[in-house]
Structure formats: C-alpha cells, structure tokens
Amino acid sequence: HSLTNRLPAALEGHEFFIEYQPLVRMCDGGVEGAEALVRWEHPRHGVLGPDRFIPLAEHTGLIVPLGRWVLEEAVRQACEWQVRGIGGARPLRVNVNLSPRQLSHPDLVSETVAVLENAGLPPESLCLEVTESAMIRADDAELKPLRQLAELGVGIALDDFGTGYSNLASLRRLPASTLKLDRSFTRGLQQHPADPVDLKIVEGIVSLAHVLDLSVTVEGVETAAQAAHLRELGCDSAQGWYYARPGPPERVTVPLPLAA
Ligand code: G
Ligand code: G
Ligand code: MN
Ligand code: NA
Q1: Residue 9 Cα, ligand 3 centroid: separation in angstroms?
Q2: Residue ranges of the EAL domain (predicted)?
C-alpha cells in the first residue's frame, strides 16, 4: 500500500497536523477542553482524515511514534491555552486518542508522564480516549498502565461508547472517568419531539454512568434540539458540529452558540 510506505517519511517531513474540536459543558455552555484529531496533509492527495491512515499506522507500528507526536503537540497546545488564560478559572483540558497498540506499549506510562512534566501540564488537564471495544478486549495487564495514569490524575474516556457491548461488570473494572456516548444514540434526538425510545435509552445510560461515577460526554451533537434534550437528560458535556467543527487551535477560543 503506497500510503503505508509513505507514513515514516510523512512523520519525518511534518506532514501531520492536528485539528481541535471543542468539548462544551452542558451546564453553562462554556468550553471545557478540546479533542485532538490528527490529519495528514498529503503532498498529492490533499488532507487525509485519520480513518485513512490510522489503521495503516496501527498495522505497521508507526502509530507509536505518530501517537507520541500527537500527544506532545496536543499537550503543548493545552499549555499554551492555559498560559493565555483561555477557559478562565477552569483551565482547558485536551483529549488525545490512544490506539490499541499504544495501549499495550511498555513505555506508555513513563512517556506520558515525561510529556506532561516537560510541558508543565497538570495530569488533570489531559484525558486519554480509548475506544470501548479496545478497552473491553484489554486484560488486566493492559489495563494496569491506564489505572496508573488515572491514579496520577489523567482522565480516561471510553470512546464510542455503546458500540462495544460492555456489560455492567466490565464497566466496573475499567479505570475510566468519562463515557463518550457514540453519536448513533443521539440521532433520534435531532428533532422536537425526540424519539421517545432514544430518550429513554440515553436517560438510562446517563444514570448508569453517574452511578458508576463516570461523567458523560455526548458526541455528534448537530442541532439545538439535540443539545436541549441532552442537557435535560443530565449529560455533562457535548461535542459536535452544532457547537463547532474540528479546526485549528484558535477554534477553541472563539464564541460558541449559547447553551440550549
Ligand atoms: O476527525 P475524524 O472524525 O475523522 O476522526 C475519525 C476517528 O479517528 C476518530 O474516531 C478518532 O478517534 C480517530 N483519531 C483521530 N485522531 C487520532 C489520533 O491521534 N490517534 C488515534 N489513535 N486515533 C485518532
Ligand atoms: O474519536 P471519534 O471517533 O469519536 O472522533 C470524532 C469524529 O466524529 C471526528 O472524526 C469528527 O470529525 C466527527 N464528528 C465530530 N462532530 C460531529 C458531528 O456533529 N456529526 C458528525 N456526523 N460527525 C462528527
Ligand atoms: Mn475520540
Ligand atoms: Na468516538
């Protein structure tokens, strides 16, 4: 695969860049942080999304150095926001996605701690996103590093929640602090009146999460109606095109639509 072969040179040649998508607090509509989403500015194919190259990088192992670069760059950016006082009294956080290969890498904890210390970012200002399916596949040895990071204060989010068939018992054993509800659950909430079954499902997931002391972030919020329903249902934060599309770091500092 020609994209696969070019990955090392692309990393070397600084062809990757990061877009940020704001994470919005439901209670007051303020920005609490942003998710870092990597892109590849390919010299011939233009900008490629992560779905085009993350699986290839995961397959070859290049995801490890690429993921380390994403982490360093996102942590540096979060520091810059904090130094500039963006977010006011509550410093902004950055969310970084981790792929399964990074999860099982022996240096995950030491490297993450080193990146935070070098930049001077508090561990609480970093959240690592791991997909629900990768998390439930992980054995205790693979969950241990995440648990260590969680004990240091790093947030751990279960990404794409609802697509990975967790059960109650498995949720209890995971070192997660946040559940990111997959956008497939919120499609039925785009209109007023919302789909009553979808409302009940989200309501149930939110109460389960809160019992387990997990905060709930909803992905893929595209309309004001969805935002209003989700706030009503007790979701803690939201992310989606209604608030902002992924964009350059400045995207996080511009005003958003008022909380519904
Ligand atoms: O931005 P976009 O919607 O195209 O992202 C698609 C998927 O790519 C998301 O599910 C996201 O989790 C994943 N992704 C984005 N950036 C990264 C990254 O830096 N590392 C990993 N492992 N996955 C990422
Ligand atoms: O990590 P994850 O796979 O959840 O990454 C989020 C992905 O969802 C990104 O690729 C981002 O571009 C996409 N996305 C973000 N907001 C919305 C939205 O409101 N609607 C849709 N359809 N996709 C979104
Ligand atoms: Mn994610
Ligand atoms: Na997701």
Answers
A1: 25
A2: 1-260
| Closest protein CA for atom 3 of ligand 2 | 160
Complex ipTM, two decimals?
0.95
- Catalogue all structural domains in the chain, each as residue range(s) with its CATH number: 23-36+62-253 (3.20.20.450)
Q: What is the pLDDT of residues 114-125, one digit of tens each?
A: 999 999 999 999
97 lines ligand 1 (CB under 6 A): yes
In this structure, the residue with its CA closest to atom 13 of ligand 2 is: 220
Round to whole Å and give the CA distance between 112 and 115: 5
Q: For atom 1 of ligand 1, which residue has the closest CA?
A: 37
The pLDDT of residue 260 is above 70:
no
